[in-house]
Structure formats: C-alpha cells, structure tokens
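Sample pair:
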Amino acid sequence: MGLKYIFKLMGLNESLMLWDQMAKALALPVEKFSIQYFDNFNVKEFLSFLEQDKKKQESILRLVLVKHLGHCYLEEVSVKDFKAKILTHADFIN
C-alpha cells in the first residue's frame, strides 16, 4: 500500500500534505498512485496479504512511514484496526 493511503487511513493529514507536496515537486505521476488506477485491485485479497506482512509481529503491524526525505519512523497499529479502517475508507469501497 502506498504511503498516500496509509497517511489517509491513519488520519495523518500533515504527512499526507507533505507527501502531496513532495510528489508534485518531483513531478511524479500522482494519478498512478490511486487505487482506482488498478483495474484488478481486490480489497479482500489485499487484506489477506496483511496477515503475511513481514513487519507483522503477533497482531501488530509495524508501518515504516516517511516524515520527509531522509526521515522515517515506525507506526504500530493492530491488524484488526487497520483492516477495519481499510474496509470503511471511501477509497477502498467499490
């Protein structure tokens, strides 16, 4: 999952704003970062991959997030809560 969606799901609005600024500054094709860009995206299949994520320990998912270029940090969230956020977020509802 791209950083854009993790920031959205976690309510990290400042990080989302910084991501948008960075993407525009680097002239990245931001439309290709949208889930809608991928015709075959399946949310249920995606959720099953969370259980297999190498950063998952027990029922906690450790997300490596970028604050700004050169500065990363860990955010821990329960897999159950993260899945619930995905299932209720407008971008993931078909």
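The helical segments are 3-10, 13-25, 43-50, 79-88.
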